[in-house]
Structures are given as structure tokens and as C-alpha cells.
Amino acid sequence: MTIPFEPSILGYKFNIHLILEYLAFFIGYRYYVFLRKHSTDSIPNLNRLSIVLGAAIGAFFGSRMVAFLENPIFTFNISALFTLLNSKTIMGGLFGGLLGVEISKKIIGEKQSSGDLFVFPIILGIFIGRIGCFLSGINEFTYGKVTTFFLGMDLGDHLNRHPIVLYELVFLVFLFLFLWKLKQLNIKNGLLFQYFMISYFGFRFLIEFLKPNIYFIFCLSSIQILCLFCFLYYYKTIFNLFKNAC
Q: Of 8, 47, 132, 188, which residue is 20 to 30 A from 162 by alpha carbon distance?
């Protein structure tokens, strides 16, 4: 198999990344429904629906805004608009979804933490979607810098690059298992999602140094700046983690 992987059936080429992206949404959502059915959810159905809707809207706009900042296009025409609407990043989606949830909860007056139920479906969805990113090679901006490191791979341009998507897949497996173990400890409601966000954004902050990024402020990419906003948002949780560790 060569990368980028472009399967063809009866002469028609299929966008494997797009297929796996839709599959990630479908399987992630079905997993969420399964978990909610087999758990005690104290949030009423109507409020939960509002929260999911808020997350979806926030994720839609957040993913595209951060994707634009990652590779700004200032040409104003139909083609540029189409490119913008099709450009998205999971980091912007996660943080935008978080803000969307908080806004919707404020509107409906819901006080309870709602994120824990989303944690494992999100990880599963990211994992499936990232397989599509890897198979797309250099067609997606998820490849690393040129390297002589022994794990370097040819992702389609005949250069050995860091396969940072594979690094992320391994990380996601360990994160899933770690948070699953943590869940068994019956920690405070809401902490599981916070630990997921802090862990994933922390990993992405570090792995971004291995990408051929455009750096804006203090030699940081737009993704890394977003990570700092996430850390600031959860500063109390991070402080408590360091406090308890000491």
C-alpha cells in the first residue's frame, strides 16, 4: 500500500479521509448513545439535546476558525469560501464545542457537568478520523517535519517525515485506557472531561513542534496558542493536579 492511499473501485477514486471522517462521526455518536443508555444520566433529555446541539454548532465554527488561522487565506472569492468551509481541525472543534456547550447550558439554566459522557466517544472518533489523516499522507496537513529519526516515513513526497499521526494514535490508546481506569475510581463529575482536554491539548502542544508550522507569536503556532487558552480555561484543575502531586 502506498501513501497517500487512494482506493479505486470500477475506475472511481474514493476519498478515504472523508469516508473515515464520516465513519468517525457515526461510530462516535452511536458509542455515545450506547454509553448514555447504559449509564445514569441526571440531565433531562431536552437539556441533553440542547447541549449536544450547542456542542455541534460550536465545533462547526471553532474547527473552521482555527483551521483558517493555521493557514490564512485572504482571497475573497467563491473558491476561497469553499476552501474555508471544507477546512477544519479537531482542536478548534473541541474548544469550540466546549464553548458551545457552556453557552447552551447558560441559556437553558443547566448547572450539572455534562462532558464526561462525551469523553470516550470523542477519543474513539478522533482515533478513526486520524487513521484517515495518516492514509492521506501529505494531502492533509497532519504530517511532520523531515527527519532522520528511525521512525521517519515517506508520506507521499519521497522524504522521511515524522509520522505524527501514528504518534497520536498510540497516545490516544493510552489516554483511553488511563481515563477508563480513572473512571472506575468514581471521581467528581466533570473531572474526566477536564482531564481529557488537558491531556490531549498538552500532547498536541508538544507534537506541534514536529510539524512544519507557520509560527505567529512567541514562536508558537495557532494550535499551540489555542492550547494555551485551554490551559488558562482549566487553570484551577491544573493547579489542583500539581498541588496534589506535591
A: 8
Question: b/e for 208-217, b at 16 or more Cβ within 10 A?
Answer: bbbbebeeee
Beta-carbon count within 10 A of 166 CB: 15
Cα within 13 Å of Cα(29), Cβ side: 10
The DSSP line for 182-206 is HHTTTPPTTHHHHHHHHHHHHHHHH
Give the CA count within 13 Å in the CB-facing half-sphere of 230: 27
Angle formed at CA 60 by CA 58 and CA 65, multiple of 5 degrees: 90
Contact 157, 138 (CB under 8 A): yes
DSSP assignment, residue 110? -
β-pair type (12-13, 8-9): antiparallel
Can you say whether residue 219 is alpha, beta or left, with left for phi > 0 and alpha for psi between -120 and 50 degrees? left
Helix residue ranges per DSSP H, the chain? 16-37, 45-70, 78-86, 90-108, 119-136, 164-183, 191-207, 222-233, 235-245
> Is residue 175 within 8 Å of residue 199, measured between CB atoms?
yes
Q: Over 90: is that where the pLDDT of 195 sits?
A: yes
What is the mean predicted confidence (pLDDT) over 96-124?
88
User: How many other C-beta atoms can be found within 10 angstroms of the C-beta atom of residue 197?
Assistant: 22
Q: Which tens digit of pLDDT belongs to each residue from 133-154?
A: 998 888 888 889 999 999 999 9
